Amino acid sequence: MWNQKPSFRFEIDNYSEKPSIQIQSKTFVAGGCEWYLNAFPKGGYLAVHDHFSLFLQVANRTMLPTGWKRKVSFYFTLLNQSDKELFRSNIVRCQVLDVKGPSWGFEKLCPLSKLQENGVLEKDRLIIEVYINLIEAVDGESGDVSGKEETMDINGFKVLASQVTLVRKIFAEHPDIALGLKSKNQVLKTAYMNVLIGLINTLNKPSHNHSETELTKAGSELSELEEVGFKLDWLKSKLEEVSLERKKEDVYGNKVIQLEERVKNLEQMENKMKRKIVECFLERKKAKDDGSRVQTLEERVNYLEAVDSSSRLDCLTLKSKSGGVSSEKMKKVDDADASRVQQLEENLKNLEEIVSDLKVKLDEGKEKTSCDGFLLVGDDEVA
Predict the structure, then answer these.
(1) Are 207 and 226 within 8 A, CB to CB?
(2) pLDDT at 88
(3) Residues 6 or more apart in contact with residue 163 via CB below 8 angstroms
(4) Are 135 and 107 in contact (CB under 8 A)?
(5) Collapsing DSSP states into helix, strand and coil, what is residue 44?
(6) Which residue from 220, 25, 203, 214 is spatially nearest to 126, judged by alpha carbons?
(7) Element at 38 (helix H, strand E)
(8) Longest dimension (CA), the chain
(9) Contact criterion met (CB below 8 Å) for 218 and 27
(10) Do 114 and 84 contact (CB within 8 A), yes or no?
(11) How far apart are the C-alpha atoms of 360 and 145, rounded to whole Å?
């Protein structure tokens, strides 16, 4: 008998952009067994690439014991964003899936042209639902039979000796937990009990150790157990509590991250301000050094101007003396006086050039000092 709810719902966003390679769903639980779906948007390995391919796959098959198998019936439906059914597959009846043959499905489930019609896939989202009906379950045996753990019967469930204490506690606290269980198959009942034990152990962990995927899987397992007849209101409350605690921790974690980012930004601002202070200090020191240099240049110019005036006076005095004698007497002027006049004129010319250059540098230094002083005032105003 088919359940009204799907065993699993797989949503594929941006379907038209998906490559031709397979898309694998997350693992889900149905019939006490873990499964996943393999979808091929552009066709499977053997199909002509004009059909959508889809397969039901046994999960973790490398960990399953020899002789493990499940006999199931199942079918798929394809829906759009509004849950409008686009396609329904044929029912696969009484198919055996085991370690050697863990997959079954349809190479040509649906023509791609049907999914590519204008407006069929709203927001480019394809939804897959799978309905699974477990008919028979065989867990098989591990290779080392001699080392096989002893089992005990607890309220009609075959459980391992290591699980006896926990199972007895479950029935003591919740005596009606399995009264509505539909299946009478012992292997299937054992598989369901193992799922229940695993679920309880998961929810008993500290909330910060739960991943989002783990909690999603726990919700899927809980729904599966309730559908087959287990009464698990107490466990559902525990799952809601754990999920809420996880959300609170996520919020707290996000706040911590935000505070860490703010501290980091403040540290960067502090370092930037320190660099700015150092730059201002260097600029002020440079301006002070430039002022000292200008003062030195002014002193040198004043000194050279004084020397220049003295040289000019000596030169004029000699020329005056020379102008007061006749041409005949000039010829008799002492060679040393003539040589001194020539030397003084050359020195005067050189001094004039030096003074001119120094005045230019002095003006440049004054302009630069004035400019730097304006910028420093501007920096102070910004601060």
Answers:
(1) no
(2) 94
(3) 193, 197
(4) no
(5) coil
(6) 25
(7) strand 33-40
(8) 154
(9) no
(10) no
(11) 106
Q: What is the pLDDT of residue 335?
A: 59
Q: Which parts of 60-165 are beta strand (E)?
A: 69-79, 85-88, 92-98, 103-111, 126-138, 151-154, 157-160
Q: Are strands 69-79 and 157-160 parallel, antiparallel or unpaired?
A: unpaired
Amino acid letter, residue 87: F
How do the residues of the chain divide into helix, strand and coil, expressed in percent and rounded to 5? 55, 20, 25
What's the burial of 172, exposed, middle or buried (CB within 10 Å: 0-12/13-18/19+)? Answer: exposed
Q: What pLDDT is recorded for position 340? A: 63
Whole-angstrom Cα distance, residue 337 to residue 324? 15
Specify the pTM: 0.47
How crowded is residue 2: how many other Cβ atoms within 10 Å of its Cβ? 13
- And the tokens for 342? 């020539």
Residue found by looking up tokens 């301006």 in the block: 287
- Residue-wise pLDDT for 31-45, tens only, equals 778 899 999 887 765
The per-residue pLDDT for range 331-368, each reduced to its tens digit, is: 554 555 556 657 766 766 777 677 677 677 666 665 65
Distance (Å, whole) CA 135 – CA 183:
10
Highest mean pLDDT: which range of 164-178, 183-197, 244-258: 164-178
**Which tokens hold the place of 214?**
């783990």
- One-character DSSP codes across 200-254: HHHHTS-GGG--HHHHHHHHHHHHHHHHTT---HHHHHHHHHHHHHHHHHHHHHH
- What Å distances lie between residue 55 and 6, 109, 164, CA to CA? 16, 9, 37
DSSP-assigned letter for residue 141: B
Range of 76-80, 284-288, 305-309 with top mean pLDDT: 76-80
In the block, which residue shows the tokens 């229940």?
Answer: 196
